[in-house]
Write a structure and sequence with these properties.
alpha+beta; 8 strands; Alpha-Beta Plaits; 263 residues; eight-stranded antiparallel barrel
């Protein structure tokens, strides 16, 4: 418990000093859950149909359920485009897990969502949807959106997923974040949006986190500062984390927010 108090105090102090969003990281702060949706689409009408569904039906329905802020993004740099991502925060895991079943009972939502929800096989609204469920890290218990920008569509977001070779190595990588890595991110000037431990989804065990930047130049400069940080070099040499390769694959995506995104 003393270690948790120390980590919470360190995070709060670092965030305040750097002007980063303040995280109420007391040990009793409830952790959020996240549903990450990945919509694979075809070029053409599917894109507009999906954006209209997000903006006019899904995000308003989520607001009614006190879920948010919702992140809605277009994949800019990654393996398969066009692809859209949704980040949906919630307070209850079961509510996120049953979300589509709940929406199917919401008449107001169904009316607004009809063109997308009732699309036929001859004109599908999307190709496939993949869903993952995550729990926020103890040391970063909820989403922290970046400050509003005059033109948020120029902002970029980095979505990173770390896969580990075993459950034990995965737990060790999560511990690494809580052993100083958060503070290094803040000291390097990053704006982290969320950190989540995957409970259900593909390619487990893994964790996912998101960072916000004004542009690619800022992304590159922040990562250079991170890699040069003396505490990062010390942390990666710590025998607790350096004895084996605890991350065996990294997925690194660059996203742009859609007009309807709340993040």
């Amino acid at each position: 418990m003393e270690r948790r108090h120390f980590l919470a105090a360190s995070l709060a102090t670092s965030a305040a000093a750097l002007g980063a969003p303040r995280i109420e990281a007391q040990p009793t702060t409830p952790r959020e859950y996240y549903q990450i949706r990945r919509y694979t689409l075809l070029n053409g009408p599917q894109q507009k149909l999906t954006e209209n569904f997000f903006a006019g039906a899904l995000i308003p329905a989520l607001a009614k359920r006190a879920m948010g802020p919702v992140g809605a993004f277009r994949l800019n740099i990654g393996p398969e485009t066009p692809t859209y991502y949704l980040i949906i925060p919630g307070k209850q895991l079961e509510e996120l897990a049953r979300l589509d079943l709940s929406l199917a009972e919401d008449r107001e939502f169904l009316d607004a969502a009809a063109p997308f929800w009732n699309a036929t096989s001859s004109a599908p609204a999307f190709q496939r949807v993949e869903i993952s469920l995550l729990e926020a890290f103890t040391g970063w218990p909820r989403v922290t959106p970046p400050a509003a920008a005059p033109d948020k569509t120029k902002r970029i977001f980095q979505l990173r997923t770390y896969e580990s070779p075993s459950n034990g190595e995965h737990v060790r990588k999560v511990e690494m974040f809580h052993s100083g890595e958060f503070e290094i991110f803040l000291r390097a000037g990053f704006h982290p949006v969320f950190f989540g431990d995957t409970l259900a989804g593909p390619r487990m065990p893994n964790l996912t986190y998101m960072l916000a930047f004004n542009d690619m130049a800022e992304l590159e400069s922040k990562w250079a500062a991170f890699g040069a940080d003396a505490d990062w070099k010390k942390l990666t040499a710590d025998p607790r984390f350096a004895y084996d390769q605890i991350v065996t694959n990294i997925s690194n995506l660059i996203l742009n927010p859609l007009d309807c995104s709340q993040i």
